[in-house]
Write a structure and sequence with these properties.
With 82 residues, the protein is mostly helical. 82% of the residues lie in helices and 0% in strands. The mean pLDDT is 91.
């Protein structure tokens, strides 16, 4: 995956503390509620064009965070086995 390869140098910058904090990162409840609402409307095919753009932005950001969290987990796992 190209995005994963692009982010590899970022993962190399993680200290164990940064990796731990990234793994524990969660959306606040208000934002999560908005994402859930948009996801439901998306499933029902009821998103406006503006909502679709907003939802797609959240999905892309979530994917980016998930990749960074996976890199952080790998760093922590390697640290525990060292």
């Amino acid at each position: 995956m190209y995005l994963d390869r692009m982010l590899a140098p970022v993962g190399d910058c993680f200290t164990p503390e940064v990796a731990r904090r990234l793994v524990e990162l969660r959306e606040d409840t208000q934002l999560q509620s908005r994402i859930d609402s948009l996801a439901e409307k998306n499933t029902e095919g009821e998103l406006s064009q503006e909502e679709r753009s907003e939802y797609e932005t959240y999905v892309r950001a979530g994917n980016l965070i998930a990749i960074l969290q996976a890199k952080a987990r790998k760093i922590l796992k390697e640290q525990n086995h060292a």
